[in-house]
Amino acid sequence: MPLDTLLFAAAEDGREEAAYAGLKAALGDCPQYTVRDQTDYEAALQDQIGQLLNMVHGLLAPAIVVAALGVVNTLAPSVVERTREIGLLRAVGLSRRQLRRMIRLESVVIALFGALLGLGLGLGMGWGGARRSGCWRWRGRRSWRSLGRRSAGCSWGRRSWGCPPPWCRRSGRGG
Known about the structure:
Blueprint: H1 16-26, H2 38-81, H3 83-92, H4 96-133, H5 143-161, H6 166-172
Helix pairs in contact: 2-4, 2-5, 4-5
């Protein structure tokens, strides 16, 4: 027979504090029982969710590094394959600075498409999963701000990783 893990009690209106204090005093000698009111229970759940989010953020950091390397690996063959095009553009009058800007903008476009697609899919799947599980309310006060901050950070990181590799500089000189 399974043991009870939770026991809920209702108190009359206006007597919630007295009932809470009475239960806490009655069960004070029993360490295996914990008396919680609704705010304590909500705080415990938020702590568990916070720990889960910290774990997800820890797993997210290597994923961002892999994504940045993916952008570099996407751009590198593009630059190598376009050596003749880059040489022609340089012959027509494109400066090295303009060439670097062009490649950097390509990396930003790739990063923005990836970020928008990831945000759309992630928010959609998260909303669908939360809706399916029954806890579909978005109650986070910092959630939108946090989402924007992380998106901006990813865009900045990918832009800075989009700096031209050495072979781009070589092909820009025509060699």
